[in-house]
Amino acid sequence: MNITKENILAKVNSYDILNHYLLPYHKENRLIAAKNISNPFLADKQETPSFNIFPAMGSGEWRYKDFATGDDGSCFDLVMKLKNLSFPEALSTINADMNLFLDSNTNTSTTTQPKPITLEKVIDDFDKMKPAKRFSITKRNYNTHDWAFWEKFKINKETLDKFNVVALECYSSFNKEGKPYEIKAFGGKLMYAYDNGDWSKIYKPFDEKKYKFQFLGIKEANYIFGWKHLPVKDDLVFITGGEKDVLCLVSNGFNAITLNSETSNLLDETAQELKKRFKNVVVLYDNDATGIKQSQLLASKYQIHRMELPKIPNNGKDVSDYFAQNGTIETFRMKLQEALNKPIAEATEDEKVMYNAVELMEMGDVETRYLIEPIFPQKGSAVIAGKPDTGKSQFARQLCIQVALGIKEFIGFEINPIHNKSIYIATEDNLEATRFLLSKQVNGLGEKAKENLRFMFADTMEQEEILTQLENALTEEPADLVVVDSFGDIFKGGDTNNNMAMRNTVKSFDKIAKQHNCLILFVHHINKGAYRVAPGQEHIQGGAGLVQKVRLAIQLSEGENNIRYFTVVKGNYCPKEYKQNSLELNFSEETFLFSNTGRLIPTADLGTQPDFKQKEEKYNELEEIANTIFGNGVVSTGNFVKQYCQITGKSIPTAKRAHANLIKFDIIEKCNGVYRLKNNNSINNEDESDNDEE
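The structure corresponding to this sequence follows.
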């Protein structure tokens, strides 16, 4: 093949050419689109980098552009400008530098025979063309601490040697600014490298998560750890979640590979080759939400088996943790056989989001489904709010208990669970307080606790951690109801009046509720200004964003003694009678349980009504002070404030509010810049000399 633009692009794409020649000017293994670097054509480094590469719309060709200087061009333009070459010279340079082996002799009529190229010369030329390594590793011999670490996971020396896992004394490379650095294993620190010659993956097992792994050099495209050690054919191969898991499985007599991560894509051709070479292909990912979800997707897409590990002590989640926690090979083989005996899941398509009207109507049952008929929906999100000490947490916990115990009614309404299971997420009450409250309520019901009710103590957890743990719990074991007590502790945002932040918080939990077909009930507060007024959705803290997003909003109000009022302030499919009227409940201080008194109270009648007598007394008091200060004369605002403070002993702000109320109640009126009693015409001209001082 001749050296032409088309033949070059048939062997290597425009991105790889750009990335190859820009390597000296950036500090990443692979330059990403729109990532600004210093312009390579400029003598001095840019203080504000403005040069980047991008795929062109339509053609997909990768190009470069500097938005400060206006430089713009293709990968060939880059080589020409960078090396001061003509177009043919640039083509030849790319051919040589990137080892494309295109024929530079386009004259087919010549009789001169080309000089034979030996294999040794090809290898030698290739080595010369490879970019220089921008890192180094200093190896050391394994010691007793190293062997203790690896043997804990049942990983042997033979496997470590086979996969070229080396212990490190130190390694060095360059940071993003191009400055060299060196990392040493001080104080017996364990540091290893999965050494691949031209590139390595560093593993520091006891570092923080973000520092545990690091790539040095340019990793091979589509590299799969363990692939080159697979036999041509065999009965079984595992696809697992990390290098250590591969080493663990291989040391225990299995074939195994790992992708870059559990979220990495498996190429179709790779999956097909595995299925041809191995009788059984088994996905074995971590026992967390991400691992379970990704293994399900992978198994379904490629019609292969998936295996889940038994529960591992001390929050273990992968196969190396399993063996480190004294898991036996016998139990592992038993779980593997169970996985192989299960039918392979049918291939699933991506979640459908667009339906036509006929499809919707043909789905069958269109009746609204309730967890608590006819108020609490079966799935989605809801909120119960109230002022402190109304018992809203006890109410939510009682609901959780009765769902888990299989009791068929709650405050007079039918419970329709699917699993008879519930989860209570406590962000306020600790373990001891929860034990006391749970004991009171379960004993009050005359029942015994069941494992169907699980508690998550999340007082020190962030929202993301709670979501992950909840996803794991529901994946491991479904539930009908999840209570989050309280919403204020899981809200992610600085302003509770920010509607978008409120909606986004609810959205994260709502998504889990819909995926796992359960109801998530938030326990929340009402605004202080609403403590003595009739219930309404506008009183729930968080502005409209929270109430708009949930399907059901309930306010629990306090009545006399142990009376509470259950009010539906928003219910998408709730009967009208429960929106206009409030259910009267009795709350037992002894058992912390609620019961239905059977009475419905008009919601508008709840709350403290305006005290007209008190208002009349305040009016009379204001009028008396006004008569004292104004009499038959006129008084400026400043003089009124002084006299009011002297008469009542109250503060200046209070005096100013009193003056404003006198105007509001039409007790005084303005006259030539000062004030007088309204409807008082006996004022002489001399009195009008008191001009407003403010």
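Residues 106-117, 125-131, 682-694 have pLDDT under 50 and may be disordered.
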